[in-house]
Specification:
Length: 312
């Protein structure tokens, strides 16, 4: 068993990862500044002797003895990362520098949770890892998009210059329990609006497409990437290649919740990608990974979670 650091460990994805690692018997240190993460997400882990929670911001250095680092710390939804764009960029860039420095000092393997946002508004569909992206460097999403791109640059420079043991994944749209009800992501937005009987807000005409991966499938891919063969760095796309329009998603949520919500349309935000779908051939080849949970099943589990949150 290993001593593992998870930055952003009290967030949506990080909390699921911590649970997986703790239940396997690893000694897990969860690091979070609770800007978007919540202690509630890891409350059930606090009774484990092999789990430790530390309030800390990754833009500040920290010294720990660990074997592996999962670097997940960064606001990931547009309302959250646009709230303080300079802080978002600092979290991606300075957080990467600090975690890479820590990994170098203690000879730890480090995984960077990058994002499909590095592809921007793609001109290639679906998006393979070889595609370099179409990103606006001065737009309202740039603090996140370019911050994550710079983090990837730093990871590979540490790999080339210092021989650091790195792994890089690019996460496509992911959903499931522990999502923040007000995080502004499309799945949580639609479900919360439907459960409250409010109008469901679709931006643009709803023809833009996304691919939705249930969090359990993503965690399995992350785990396999961290423990993949020496020398395989990635980047690797992790996501569900099933592709749906935003309008189709809204209709599915209304049906599954039994809501009487109406769909209304609002202007499309700046730099909103028209389409997003991962090519996952590399993950299949190197990690023997593919998602298994269908959208309707995953939405059902997520709706059950949000029923408790909304009613509370």
């Amino acid at each position: 068993m290993k001593r593992i650091l998870v930055t952003g460990g009290a967030g949506f994805i990080g909390s699921h990862l911590c649970k997986r690692l703790v239940e396997e018997g690893n000694e897990v240190i969860c690091l979070d500044n609770f800007f978007t993460g919540s202690k509630k997400n890891v409350k059930n882990l606090l009774d484990y002797d092999n789990f430790e929670l530390i309030r800390h911001d990754v833009t500040k250095e920290i010294n720990l003895e660990i074997d592996q680092i999962y670097n997940l710390a960064c606001p990931a939804s547009p309302p959250h990362y646009q709230y303080n764009p300079i802080k978002t960029a600092k979290t991606s860039v300075m957080g990467a520098i600090n975690m890479l420095g820590l990994a170098k000092r203690v000879h730890a393997r480090i995984l960077q949770a990058s994002t499909s946002e590095v592809y921007g508004d793609p001109e290639v569909h679906p998006q393979p890892e070889s595609y370099r992206g179409c990103v606006n460097p001065i737009g309202i999403r740039s603090c996140y998009d370019e911050g994550k791109r710079m983090a990837e640059t730093l990871f590979f420079d540490y790999y080339r210059q210092h021989g650091l043991d790195i792994k890089v994944i690019r996460i496509f749209n992911t959903y499931g329990p522990n999502m923040h009800p007000e995080d502004g992501r499309v799945v949580s937005n639609f479900i919360v609006q439907a459960l409250k009987g409010e109008d469901i807000t679709v931006y643009g005409d709803g023809s833009q497409t996304r691919s939705f991966c249930y969090v359990d499938d993503l965690i399995e891919g992350m785990y396999r990437m961290m423990n993949s063969r020496d020398g395989f760095t990635g980047p690797v796309n992790l996501g569900n290649p099933g592709e749906y329009t935003i309008l189709e998603l809204a209709e599915k949520v209304i049906k599954l919740t039994g809501s009487k919500s109406e769909i209304i349309r609002m202007p499309l935000p700046s730099d909103d990608p028209a389409q997003r779908r991962p090519a996952i051939d590399l993950a299949g080849k190197e990690l023997n990974w593919k998602p298994h949970i269908m959208l309707e099943d995953g939405l059902g589990r997520t709706i059950d979670y949000f029923r408790e949150v909304v009613e509370a």
